[in-house]
Amino acid sequence: MCSYCGCQSITVVGRFMAEHDEIINATGEMVRAAASGDPERVRETAQVVARLLSPHTHSEEVGLFSVMREQEEFTEHIDTLCGEHSSLDVLLEAVAGGAFERAPEFEKELRTHIDKEDNGLFPAAAMSLDGTDWERVDATTPEAQEAITDGRGHLLHSHSHGPDHHHPHP
Ligand SMILES: [Fe+2]
Prior knowledge:
Helices cover 69% and strands 3% of the residues. By secondary structure, it is mainly α. The chain has a two-stranded antiparallel sheet with strand order 1-2. Helix 1 runs antiparallel to helix 4 (103-128), helix 2 runs antiparallel to helix 3 and helix 3 runs antiparallel to helix 4. The chain starts with 10 loop residues before the first helix and ends in a 13-residue tail after the last strand. The model is unreliable at 146-170 (pLDDT under 50). It binds fe (ii) ion (FE2).
């Protein structure tokens, strides 16, 4: 885990890592739904995954990734990660569209991709970007996604105040 380099203490990276956990949890729901063979439930859970995944990858790409890829040593790797964002979208759409047997494949690809970010790119960013770079990352990264409701007005997620934290408030 990248607790070694402390990159999680960088606000934007901490947020991305917290979002990764949520996306993985939501994907678990989808994989279980797919295994149970309930099409309606698969569509619902896939939609939850998509609503978490797509603003997340967009934020990475327009913020951190665009600043990082200016450094030649990272350009190719960033392009690979962006390609994986697209293929994950395609795979998720396939699952939602009825290819339930591909749900475990999506989960595997997602976990591999997230591992590359959490344990590769983010620690590299912590070591390679300077203060000015991080200011630019902060300035170009869209706000964490606004509250998401389930369509009936029930709050499912709210990221507007940064990553979830579970300690009791005084
Ligand atoms: Fe990510």
